[in-house]
Write a sequence for this structure.
């Protein structure tokens, strides 16, 4: 046994068919957790689950498609996980949306509601679906993938930043609610990571040069550079950590 051993643990990772979620799911499986790959499209989930199972020559992953905008889908995701593996030990709320780039005055009401519903309300729903059995067992780890946007302002993705600030508050409050039952809730706050989700930021030459010039490490991050923090927060290595934020941004927030 090591501090990072996840043998016998079951993890749900939303938005795990690609990007940061996929990297987290792969690393959790590498540390022996059973993982549920989930995003909106079943074929994409099935490809990732099959790759994990082939890598480890055993069933360490299943695919369960679910939309974070649907409370019914999320309950189905939890039910399918418990039916298959009997429990949920680790929840990674990674899926998010950002339908608007530009000043906040240009965002429509429907776009604003979509950001708040998918990035905050969906996390609230899903956490409270898995928390009761975690609290009853007196063991569990909830990890919300927020963003350094929760700590900073933005002239082009303000609603997204607002939602990610709310995720930080959600983690702090639930850490207080669940703490006496030994269920921990923490956030990871990535900086600019080279994912399809953030492509509008890192693939634009002007934005990318501005980031690289200002960032102490001089580059954007890779999805796998976020995954280690999730393994830490899921494991015994972080057993006395709750309500906190791990910032992984190449030093950007110190500038």
């Amino acid at each position: 046994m090591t501090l990072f051993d996840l043998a016998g643990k079951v993890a749900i990772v939303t938005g795990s068919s690609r990007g940061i979620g996929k990297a987290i799911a792969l690393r959790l499986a590498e540390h022996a957790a059973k993982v549920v790959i989930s995003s909106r499209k079943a074929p994409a989930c099935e490809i990732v689950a099959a790759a994990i199972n082939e890598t480890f020559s055993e069933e360490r992953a299943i695919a369960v498609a679910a939309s974070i905008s649907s409370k019914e889908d999320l309950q189905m995701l939890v039910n399918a996980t418990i039916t298959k593996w009997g429990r949920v030990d680790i929840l990674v709320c990674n899926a998010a949306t950002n339908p608007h780039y530009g000043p906040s005055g240009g965002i429509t009401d429907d776009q604003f509601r979509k950001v708040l519903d998918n990035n905050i309300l969906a996390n609230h729903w899903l956490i409270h679906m898995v928390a009761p059995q975690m609290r009853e067992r007196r063991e569990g780890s909830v990890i919300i993938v927020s963003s350094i946007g929760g700590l900073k302002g933005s002239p082009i993705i303000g609603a997204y930043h607002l939602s990610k600030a709310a995720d930080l508050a959600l983690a702090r409050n639930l850490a207080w609610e669940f703490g006496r039952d030994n269920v921990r809730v923490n956030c990871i706050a990535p900086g600019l990571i080279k994912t399809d989700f953030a492509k509008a930021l890192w693939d634009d030459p002007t934005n990318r040069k501005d980031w690289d010039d200002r960032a102490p490490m001089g580059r954007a991050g890779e999805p796998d550079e976020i995954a280690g923090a999730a393994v830490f927060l899921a494991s015994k290595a972080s057993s006395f950590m709750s309500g906190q934020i791990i910032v992984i941004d190449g030093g950007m927030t110190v500038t």
Observations:
- The longest helix spans residues 109-137.
- The chain has one domain: 10-249.
- Helices lie at 19-30, 42-56, 71-85, 109-137, 158-178, 199-202, 205-214, 224-234.
